[in-house]
Design brief:
The chain has eleven helices and two strands; from the N terminus they run αααββαααααααα. It has 238 residues and is mostly helical. A two-stranded antiparallel ribbon has the order 1-2. α8 packs parallel to α10. The model has no long low-confidence stretch (mean pLDDT 91). Keywords: DNA-binding, Transcription, Transcription regulation. InterPro entries: GntR_C, TF_FadR/GntR_C, Tscrpt_reg_HTH_GntR, WH-like_DNA-bd_sf, WH_DNA-bd_sf. It comes from Streptomyces coerulescens. This is FadR/GntR family transcriptional regulator. It holds the Pfam family GntR.
Length: 238
Amino acid sequence: MEALPRETTVDVLEKRLREDILAGRHPAGSMLPPERELADRFGVNRTTLKHAFGRLVHSGLLETRHGVGTRVRDYLRLGGADLLPMLVRHSPDWIGEIFEVRRTIGALIAERAAARATAAQVAELRALMTAVGDADGGEDVQLADAEVHRALARATGNRVYVLLTNTLFNAYLPVRAALVAPFLDAGVAHDRLAPVVEAVAASDEEAARVAAGAYLSATERIMLEGLAASRERRDGAQ
């Protein structure tokens, strides 16, 4: 029998089952073993198991049907982008795919913002850019930079772009500390992003798209290098 810490039984059980699902030990579409069997395997009661199942159902990894059992949901076919933070926690390899979408969406958002931003939105963008330059420390610069991108999304007038921007930021929150390298120098971070905001202020759609593409490619490269270095340090410490 595999015992779990009493004080965090549901949390640990949820994590264990989630890792088994995401690692493919319980493939999409497969039925989980009967509750009694799983409860005995982990040394928990069925109430605890049901609580863990409930969390995994809520996160989109399981589906239960009374009288049938609990099935692993095909999250890649049926799931939504809200699963990304969980997937990144399981495997940072997802970051590369997230950044690919970030490049495409970010350039389009900048282009649309240049076409649609109001004077008030341009003023907000410039104020947020000042906050980037004034921020103290990599984490604060990183967060200030993120607010500029949220404002760019709002300036498109399209709420879906706003939600997509939020989703992409939320997706890499689990590894945010390893992605701070582009933001360690507030002045450099400000100057790297400023051409995007200035192109939007000038209503120059092409320049905004090109500037955003350059910004996103440059920061992606630096962040991926930082993530790789973080992995090496972690692996070396093990």
